[in-house]
């Protein structure tokens, strides 16, 4: 009997099974009522009393070995089964949620696209600027209030270094390096020393346009503005130019468009005037051309500058400037359909 036990033990230790049916067959072979181990148990009854202790122990060990072995075979097959059942390689991947473009980028890109259809190309300049490019070259008088500490962020140790307050600084940078014809738009971030509120922010975005060539006239400016307004706000849009003042343009104007909410009839948004202001513009002052090394007797030009936030507010009725820099995803997701 001891031989039989050892033989079965060796057999059981090397058992293997490929699936649940094979494990069940092994269980029947060894552990069922008519299985090999049960048969041994039956034989055990006729074993002489003095061998009972030793053989009984061995038999129990064999039974435990068989039970453990079958359990571990069963477990191995179950994990293999679930591992393959859970992976369906033909399934399409779960969709990754797409981000949205920032509303200011959407509007900036649209402005760029409209002007590029007129032959304007992008020019960029630094945000940390010097007095010459932001003010002096643009005909700002020495005591102009815009230079005041209250408007401009200066670097304390060197008042010649400052954060640009407008993108007009890119005009002078380009004119210094390039002779006409010049036809550029300059998108970028600008900084002003303002308390942050719904209507003002210490940084915002502008797009500047500059066209310098022979015989550029006010009529060219006006037609460019009309084209821009209609492309941006729809073909029914009307424009109105009001005389204004900027140091770097002469004459200067501010442009209003017919209110795109009420179509010009008058509403609370346009304060019942039917018009909303959208940008500043004018003919480049000869002093500016000369300061940048361009002969003002041969060349003339126009320039315009607009706030991207302002245009975005008009297009999408965003009434609080702070929303643009808070990055609240719920706000940003509202622009999913816009690009
Ligand atoms: N730089 C002006 C501002 O920041 C905007 C502006 C007005 C730009 C008239 C121009 C212009 O080029 O001709 O308010």
How does the SSE layout of this entry go?
Blueprint: H1 2-13, H2 20-31, H3 36-44, H4 49-86, H5 103-116, E1 121-122, E2 128-130, H6 131-134, E3 154-155, E4 158-163, H7 168-177, E5 182-191, E6 203-213, H8 218-233, E7 239-246, E8 249-258, E9 275-284, H9 286-291, E10 300-307, H10 308-316, H11 323-326, H12 329-333
Parallel strand pairs: 1-5
Antiparallel strand pairs: 2-4, 3-4, 5-6, 6-10, 7-8, 8-9, 9-10
The structure holds 3,4-dihydroxyphenylalanine.
Q: What descriptors fit this protein?
A:
339 residues; 2 domains; 3-stranded antiparallel β-sheet; binds 3,4-dihydroxyphenylalanine
Could you please describe the fold and organization of this structure?
- The longest helix is centred in the first third of the chain and has 38 residues, at 49-86.
- Strands 1-5-6-10-9-8-7 form a 7-stranded mixed sheet, sandwiched between helices. A 3-stranded antiparallel sheet has the order 2-4-3.
- The protein has helices at 2-13, 20-31, 36-44, 49-86, 103-116, 131-134, 168-177, 218-233, 286-291, 308-316, 323-326, 329-333; strands at residues 121-122, 128-130, 154-155, 158-163, 182-191, 203-213, 239-246, 249-258, 275-284, 300-307.
- Helix 1 (2-13) packs parallel to helix 4 (49-86) and helix 5 (103-116) crosses helix 10 (308-316).
- A hairpin with a 2-residue loop joins strand 7 and strand 8 (249-258).
- Helix content is 41%, strand content 21%.
- The chain is built from 12 helices and 10 strands.
- The N and C termini lie far apart (85 Å).
- The site of 3,4-dihydroxyphenylalanine has 11 residues, from strand 9 and strand 10.
